[in-house]
Design brief:
The protein is α/β, with parallel strands linked by helices. Helices cover about 35% and strands about 15% of the residues. The chain contains 13 helices and 17 strands. Strand 5 and strand 6 form a beta hairpin.
Length: about 425
């Protein structure tokens, strides 16, 4: 009996029959099967098993599966001595063969880029599915989300080790305050390292594809070349990791926007149309100008969010009141503004940030804003340094959990309704990732 056959046999004891949807009854794959598959598995799959990872089962057995949300199965415990339980619910004979077939397919799907069910192809971006560093989740499983973050893993081995320990520790701390998901928007990332951090911390991490501020070598990229790069990562995974990005990151250095930058934005709009994937932009200045390029290229503006828009040095001389009016032109078209300068008062005065968020909320745009931290760090003389920690009083404290510990209470103290604040970290990220 092969490991796969044994898995199927043992899982029969855990499944309650239901002719409409058998897989929904699967609670978890028995721990006792780990010894059967551990040494036969793909290395990536094996590592995920060893780290007690969660895996997505892309199949809903309902006959109208393509319109249903994803279901999941988990490997929660690796214990080579456990034996499968007996005398538990058996599968109804009516559905036995269907269950056996689908569970086997689900196991194979853990590392497959595309899935086949009943002769139909289900791409990576099935409806209501978000790829993360450790598998797929549905939008409803995002929970509290910080939508613009970084896990900065350096190439230097010693620095990388310190960075991973820091990221894991800070994410665990944030998880204690309720954080469930972050979106890493660094296109120059270590996806394999991010997966390790996600597994160790228990926080979902959505990775990105795309481009940050263009290097000299990237200035000559054509629209087609940009599209091909992003499409390859979406379809095949980042590098050799098979981790699919769940968001596109693009950027402009400032105004005016260059032709090379326009090429990237046009390519991102095309890729968004093709794969139904959100777009995040680096928009210290010119978010309305960025939005116009995306709009003319056919992007779905409701799934585009513009970051750092509150940074005063990007306002092109506008007053706070003028900046609010400028930002309103962006949200009027359905896009989202991403604010991250909580505690970074050298980039945005606290009274200005409070006024912007409060005024836009009063104008009815609390469905078009998100709150995040944009944590990143580097090394100086071998020591880890959080960005802007030397220019703010509590700069070292501005880590992932700062959003929930201090930024949210600060907004409430400054007259922003709790209902709106919840939208910034729950409802709005979910909407951006829901198609």
């Amino acid at each position: 009996m092969t490991p796969a056959e044994k898995i199927l046999q043992l899982n029969q004891y855990l499944v309650g029959g239901n002719k409409n949807n058998i897989v929904a009854a699967i609670k978890e794959v028995p721990a006792g099967i780990a010894s059967l598959i551990y040494f036969n598995a793909d290395p990536v799959f094996r590592n995920q098993l060893q780290n007690k990872a969660y895996f997505t089962n892309p199949f809903d057995v309902n006959e109208r599966y393509e319109k249903k949300p994803m279901t999941f199965f988990t490997f929660k415990k690796i214990d080579m001595n456990l034996k499968p339980k007996k005398n538990q619910h058996d599968v109804h004979n009516h559905n036995r063969r269907k269950f056996m077939k689908l569970l086997g397919m689900a196991l194979a799907a853990a590392t497959a880029p595309k899935f086949i069910l009943a002769g139909k192809s289900i791409g990576w971006f099935a409806e209501n599915s978000i790829p993360t560093a450790t598998g797929k989740i549905s939008p409803s499983q995002m929970g509290i989300t910080s939508i613009h973050e970084h896990i900065a893993l350096q190439a230097d081995a010693a620095q990388k080790e310190k960075s991973m320990a820091f990221a894991i520790s800070e994410l665990k701390k944030a998880k204690e305050f309720g954080l469930q998901t972050i979106v890493d928007v660094n296109p120059n990332r270590d996806a394999a390292g991010i997966r390790e951090v996600s597994l160790a911390s228990g926080v979902n991490v959505v990775c990105c594809t795309g481009y940050y501020v263009l290097t000299k070598q990237q200035q000559t990229l054509t629209i087609e070349e940009c599209e091909n790069h992003m499409a390859k990562e979406i379809e095949q995974g980042i590098g050799e990791t098979k981790i699919r990005p769940g968001v596109i990151k693009i950027a402009t250095k400032g105004l005016p926007i260059t032709q090379a930058e326009k090429n990237v934005f046009i390519a991102a709009a095309h890729i968004q149309q093709r794969y139904k994937i959100p777009i995040c932009t680096h928009a210290v200045s010119g978010c309305a100008e960025q939005q116009l390029i995306l709009e003319e290229a056919g992007a779905n503006l409701a799934h585009c969010y513009f970051s750092h828009v509150e940074a005063t040095f990007g306002w092109s001389g506008r007053t706070t009141e003028q900046e609010i009016d400028y930002l309103e032109t962006v949200v009027k078209k359905g896009s989202t503004l991403s604010f991250n300068n909580f505690g970074n008062w050298n980039h945005t005065k606290p009274e200005d940030l409070a006024k912007i968020i409060r005024e836009l909320t009063q104008r009815g745009y609390d469905n078009n804003m998100v709150a995040t931290m944009d944590l990143t760090w580097s090394f100086e003389n071998g020591d880890l340094k959080v960005l802007w920690s030397d220019t703010n009083v509590d700069g070292k404290d501005r880590t992932y959990s700062y959003l929930l510990r201090k930024a949210l209470p600060w907004m409430k103290e400054n007259g922003i309704p709790e209902k709106s604040i919840n939208k910034f970290i729950l409802d709005n990220p979910k909407r951006i990732f829901t198609w």
